[in-house]
Please model this.
Amino acid sequence: IICLLGILLTGCSQPATLETVGDELHQPETPLKMHASFQMPPNAVAETMQDQDNGTVYFCDGYTITAHTTLSGDLKKTIYQISGYDPSQLCIMETKQGDCKRYSFVWVSAGETEEQVCRCTIIDDGGYHYVLTAMADASQAGKMTETWNEMFSSFRLQHPSEVVNSGS
Model:
């Protein structure tokens, strides 16, 4: 009787459901990184950033410029990391630049000697955030308006194949 019950009960169990996965491992494609460029102000001295990938700080007469690239994705997180502000606290202007989205904003933060006026533009191509930031003491920021306007308006992306190798 026990053997007969065992045979009957094994027929009542649910068959195991198996899923098969293809033989190939599919890794997500790394997005093509574009080349970000902008009109460099005169007398800018570059220094590579140690704490971020693909970043450079430019020291200019009375202000600094930072240019770096991060993986795209969470724009709010990128804005917070740059400014220290939640994006809802800033007035962010969104425009289009070709197939990319362009975000521009300004903010004021505490500096070593006085408040700092900061301006930023982020170009999002869907794979990366290309970030250009300028910072100056509040008392000097008005003198930078023309230079900064030229610099930020020249900020754009180029396909790597379009970049001419200057040998430097």
